[in-house]
């Protein structure tokens, strides 16, 4: 086979730092070229959500800053607004339109990026279809990433986001992992807030407390060239979509443990980033699981059957160790196989501050992040040491788990508090209070109040 032809670049390539590897170096050079202001942001080195910024903190870089100086960065203050003249109808609660997850609000936000100019002025405009070339990079090479967030109408009448800064940080990490342009996360947050403020009052009226809109910031490579290379054009867009309230599943979620022919993510891959390529390949297995009566796949990794995620959500287990110690355990992030979920992070922080010392009628519990196998879970189930389990994520929120199937056996998960376990119930209650502005948590720092337009 003839070697692939490579066109020489006009400038010499950056010097490779062989101590960190190709991916880390590539991320560094991408940020330097497309959004050097990100490097000035102070982020704790222990924060996985700030992994991109941490990885490029070795600056000064050997990459040239000449290009960066001439490229415009994402700037929410340049937003151009065109309001719709054909407003859309808000679906009735309980209607098929509400449940379809297809109905979007009146407006959307777009921002274009090109390799020659950088970020163009963003626009708030009527919701409508995108125009893409059939040869667009995102349609062929999965150069696409997104975030999942919610806009809540609180019981106190206010509109809230939940820790949106973390979503914007994570989207920066995802874009850099797949060679899309970088941006300052605070500018993305400003755009999200603007769209929520514009459409929130109409689509989440104050007489609908306890409801939400789903927020989908997305970035795609729109470069029309079919060559397998870094895209030279990209589009950021933000949508608000109607979702029906998501109630508890009777008896809890049923999980089917993945088999030897399935692998969702692997060390050195991109399981930690919220990219479209993580989701499409899982749909075949997910469909088969549902046909068999299960709600989702419990993804395992390797011959040791290491537990990773439940569908697209993080997996938590409360059990007693063989020595009798009570633990809340979840997969760690060290190998970057598991998504650093915003809900996951919040569960862990709340558990360490409120549950570890004991809470009301709950005994103290140790919070553990480590690699553990399905064989350990199986043994704990056989010995009666499993207390409860749940999945966490933006879509499912906190979803109790009632059953796990592994290699021909079903393991029933206890639910001591009726529809969930006691610790699951306590964690869910804490988070709901913050998201919906109730239970004395209206002023919690995790609840980002959106000042809606009149």
Automatic annotation (TrEMBL):
InterPro entries: Aminotrans_IV, Aminotrans_IV_CS, Aminotransferase-like, B_amino_transII, BCAT-like_C, BCAT-like_N. It holds the Pfam family Aminotran_4. It catalyses: L-valine + 2-oxoglutarate = 3-methyl-2-oxobutanoate + L-glutamate; L-isoleucine + 2-oxoglutarate = (S)-3-methyl-2-oxopentanoate + L-glutamate; L-leucine + 2-oxoglutarate = 4-methyl-2-oxopentanoate + L-glutamate. PROSITE patterns: AA_TRANSFER_CLASS_4. One of its GO terms (biological process) is L-valine biosynthetic process. Its cofactor is pyridoxal 5'-phosphate. The modification N6-(pyridoxal phosphate)lysine is found at residue 274. It comes from the Eukaryota. One of its GO terms (cellular component) is mitochondrion. It is an enzyme of class 2 (transferase). Keywords: Amino-acid biosynthesis, Aminotransferase, Branched-chain amino acid biosynthesis, Pyridoxal phosphate, Transferase. Its EC number is 2.6.1.42. One of its GO terms (molecular function) is branched-chain-amino-acid transaminase activity. Belongs to the class-IV pyridoxal-phosphate-dependent aminotransferase family. This is Branched-chain-amino-acid aminotransferase. It comes from Aaosphaeria arxii CBS 175.79.
């Amino acid at each position: 086979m003839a070697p692939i032809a490579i066109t020489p670049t006009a400038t010499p390539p950056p010097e490779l730092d062989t101590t960190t590897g190709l991916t880390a170096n590539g991320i560094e050079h991408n940020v330097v070229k497309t959004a050097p202001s990100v490097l000035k942001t102070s982020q704790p080195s222990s924060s996985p959500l700030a992994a991109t910024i941490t990885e490029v903190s070795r600056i000064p870089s050997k990459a040239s800053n000449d290009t960066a100086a001439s490229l415009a960065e994402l700037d929410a203050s340049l937003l151009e607004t065109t309001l719709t003249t054909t407003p859309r109808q808000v679906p009735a609660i309980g209607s098929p339109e509400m449940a379809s997850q297809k109905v979007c609000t009146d407006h959307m936000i777009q921002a274009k990026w090109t390799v020659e100019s950088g970020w163009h002025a963003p626009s708030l405009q009527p919701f409508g279809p995108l125009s893409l070339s059939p040869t667009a990079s995102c349609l062929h090479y999965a150069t696409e990433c997104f975030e999942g967030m919610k806009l809540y109408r609180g019981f106190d009448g206010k509109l809230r986001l939940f820790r949106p800064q973390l979503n914007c940080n994570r989207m920066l990490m995802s874009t850099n992992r797949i060679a899309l342009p970088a941006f300052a996360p605070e500018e993305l947050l400003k755009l999200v807030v603007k769209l929520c403020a514009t459409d929130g009052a109409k689509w989440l009226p104050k007489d609908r407390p306890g409801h939400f809109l789903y927020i989908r910031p997305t970035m795609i490579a729109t470069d029309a060239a079919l060559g397998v290379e870094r895209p030279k054009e990209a589009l950021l867009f933000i949508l608000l979509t109607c979702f029906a309230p998501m109630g508890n599943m009777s008896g809890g979620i049923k999980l089917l443990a993945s088999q030897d022919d399935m692998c969702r993510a692997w060390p050195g891959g991109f399981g930690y980033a919220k990219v479209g390529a993580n989701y499409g390949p899982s749909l075949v297995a997910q469909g088969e699981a549902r046909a068999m009566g299960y709600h989702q796949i419990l993804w395992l990794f390797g011959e040791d059957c290491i537990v990773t995620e439940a569908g697209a959500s993080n997996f938590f287990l409360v059990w007693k160790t063989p020595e009798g110690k009570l633990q809340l355990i979840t997969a760690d992030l060290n190998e970057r196989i598991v998504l650093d979920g915003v809900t996951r992070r919040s569960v862990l922080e709340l558990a360490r501050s409120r549950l570890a010392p004991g809470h009301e009628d709950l005994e103290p519990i140790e919070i553990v992040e480590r690699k553990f196998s399905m064989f350990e879970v199986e043994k704990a189930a056989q010995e009666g040491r499993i207390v409860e389990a749940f999945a966490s994520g933006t879509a499912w929120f906190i979803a109790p788990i009632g059953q796990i199937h592994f290699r021909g056996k079903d393991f029933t998960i206890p639910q001591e508090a009726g529809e969930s376990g006691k610790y699951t119930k306590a964690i869910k209650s804490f988070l709901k209070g913050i998201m919906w502005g109730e239970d004395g948590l209206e002023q919690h720092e995790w609840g980002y109040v959106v000042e809606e337009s009149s």
